[in-house]
């Protein structure tokens, strides 16, 4: 930058930059589906960024088999009002914790430090909770065709990173909010994501009755991103 404010810590890690907003948690809470496979969340107030928020979830260990097959953010540019997530089986009831994060800040403190950008937007507010990204991995391995007890045939993919989640740690569900295209087909395969508490890794299940040719052996590199939200 030519001018402005930069703050670095003792390890030369950039903590504040008046030109580059940091990822901050705007809202957080719990989700729980009641009477259906869909859990809906309404933000306390709309999130006004142009880009949609990053939704991080922590699926409860009490429901380890639930697969999340969709996540939809409600609202529109500058007026994101909430989101809903759905499970792949009509008898599952998604439950867990969540937080919504954006590259920006909101006015949350009566005192402290606040920086505005040239368009009047708040770039930094010392009262906004920074998101602490803990680990990320975009490598997936095909683990074969299995019979899921509640869904039938499934192609299973394991994330290469194996590590337990800390008590206040979540994963971002945005990259896993849709199904997978099928090889040599004009349609797509419903897919589900979950953090497997027994295996300590993210898993994707592509649901299909086609043991061969029903899904790609290489699904590309969707990012598995984990972050902590201290105090939750």
Tell me what the structure shows.
With 232 residues, this protein is an all-beta fold. The chain folds into two domains: 6-131, no CATH class; 134-228, no CATH class. The protein contains no helices and 20 strands. It has strands spanning 6-8, 14-17, 23-32, 38-47, 54-59, 68-76, 79-87, 95-103, 114-116, 122-125, 129-130, 132-137, 140-148, 152-159, 169-172, 180-181, 188-189, 191-196, 201-207, 224-228. Strands 11-3-8-5-15-20-12 form a seven-stranded antiparallel sheet, with no helix packed on it. The two termini are 35 Å apart. The model has no long low-confidence stretch (mean pLDDT 85).
Secondary-structure content class: mainly beta
For the record, the count of structural domains works out to 2
Order of helices and strands: EEEEEEEEEEEEEEEEEEEE
- N→C terminal distance: 35 Å
Helix content: under 10%
Dominant shape: elongated
In what range is the share of β-strand residues? over 45%
Strand order of the largest sheet: 11-3-8-5-15-20-12
**Mind describing the biggest β-sheet?**
7 strands, antiparallel
Overall pLDDT: 85
Radius of gyration: 19 Å
Count of strand segments: 20
| Number of continuous helical runs | 0
Poorly predicted segments:
none
């Amino acid at each position: 930058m030519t001018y402005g404010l930069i703050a670095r810590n003792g390890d030369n890690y950039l903590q504040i930059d008046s030109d580059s907003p940091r990822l901050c948690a705007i809202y957080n809470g719990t989700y729980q589906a009641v009477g259906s496979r869909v859990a809906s969340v309404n933000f306390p107030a709309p999130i006004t960024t142009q880009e949609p928020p990053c939704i991080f979830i922590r699926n409860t260990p009490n429901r380890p088999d639930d697969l999340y097959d969709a996540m939809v953010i409600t609202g529109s540019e500058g007026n994101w009002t909430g989101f809903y997530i759905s499970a792949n089986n009509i008898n599952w009831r998604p439950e867990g914790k969540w937080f919504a994060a954006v590259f920006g800040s909101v006015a949350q403190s009566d005192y402290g430090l606040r920086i505005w950008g040239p368009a009047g937007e708040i770039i930094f507010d010392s009262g906004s909770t920074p998101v602490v990204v803990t680990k990320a991995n975009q490598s997936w391995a095909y683990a074969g065709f299995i019979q899921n007890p509640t869904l039938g045939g499934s192609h299973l993919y394991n994330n290469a990173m194996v590590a337990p989640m800390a008590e206040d740690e979540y994963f971002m569900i945005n990259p896993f909010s849709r199904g997978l295209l099928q090889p040599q087909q004009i349609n797509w395969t419903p897919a589900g994501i979950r953090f497997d508490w027994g295996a300590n890794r993210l898993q994707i299940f592509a649901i299909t009755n086609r043991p061969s040719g029903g899904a790609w052996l290489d699904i590309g590199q969707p990012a598995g991103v984990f972050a902590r939200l201290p105090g939750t």
